[in-house]
């Protein structure tokens, strides 16, 4: 029996809307969250604009805007369908690992800017002390994140994943 025969499209739709609502609540654009959740729920992790439009009952323009955002934040990439002029939108392998690794790069920028701010304001001022503490927090977070990502890779290797 094919897996698609037992998959409930209603259950998939409920998942997509629930997860998209959570992503939206966390700050992601609503339509991008819906497109991302739909891609996540697809077996291949890849869909065309027409497939996304149909599955989500949204316009191709809405798909285009959502994909532009997801591509910009590097959660999705665009690939040409073999032998076709149509694009497929694809989730990255190790999506969450890559996303958190990019966050680490952002933390590095924040930390440096904060340290520059401390130098300009003076470490003895209330604002300078607050910035120094925030910079130290980001530095700590980065160290923890690197260790956590290493532990994740080791743990992932023990999981019975395809």
List keywords for this structure.
mainly alpha, single chain, 3-stranded antiparallel beta sheet, 7 helices, 162 residues
Written overview of the protein:
The protein is mostly helical and 162 residues long. The chain is 69% helix and 8% strand. It is built from seven helices and three strands; from the N terminus they run αααβααββαα. It has helices spanning 3-6, 9-25, 30-41, 49-56, 60-72, 95-121, 126-156, and strands at 46-48, 76-80, 87-91. Strands 1-3-2 form a three-stranded antiparallel beta sheet. The chain starts with a helix and ends in a 6-residue tail after the last helix. The mean pLDDT is 88.
Q: What is shown here, in short?
A:
By secondary structure, the protein is mostly helical. The protein is 69% helix and 8% strand. The model has no long low-confidence stretch (mean pLDDT 88).
User: Taking all residues together, what is the mean pLDDT?
Assistant: 88
Give the overall shape, derived from the CA principal axes.
Answer: elongated
Number of beta strands = 3
> Approximately what portion of the residues adopt beta-strand conformation?
5-15%
Q: Which sheet architecture does the biggest sheet show?
A: 3 strands, antiparallel
Straight-line N-to-C gap: 19 Å
The SSE string, one letter per element, is HHHEHHEEHH
Gyration radius, in Å? 20 Å
- The structural class is mainly alpha
Helix content: 55-70%
Count of individual helical segments = 7
Low-confidence parts, pLDDT < 50 over ≥5 residues?
none
Write out the strand line-up for the largest beta sheet, numbering strands in chain order.
1-3-2
């Amino acid at each position: 029996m094919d897996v698609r025969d037992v998959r409930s499209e209603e259950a998939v739709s409920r998942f997509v809307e629930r997860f998209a609502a959570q992503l939206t609540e966390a700050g992601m654009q609503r339509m991008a969250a819906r497109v991302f959740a739909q891609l996540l729920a697809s077996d291949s992790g890849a869909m065309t604009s027409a497939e996304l439009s149909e599955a989500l009952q949204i316009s191709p323009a809405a798909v285009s805007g959502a994909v532009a955002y997801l591509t910009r934040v590097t959660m999705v990439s665009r690939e040409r369908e073999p032998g076709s002029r149509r694009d497929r939108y694809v989730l990255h392998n190790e999506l969450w690992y890559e996303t958190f690794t990019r966050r680490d790069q952002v933390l590095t920028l924040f930390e440096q800017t904060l340290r520059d701010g401390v130098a300009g304001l003076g470490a003895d001022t209330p604002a300078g002390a607050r910035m120094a503490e925030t910079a130290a927090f980001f530095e700590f977070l980065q160290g923890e994140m690197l260790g956590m990502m290493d532990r994740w890779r080791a743990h992932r290797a023990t999981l019975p994943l395809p």
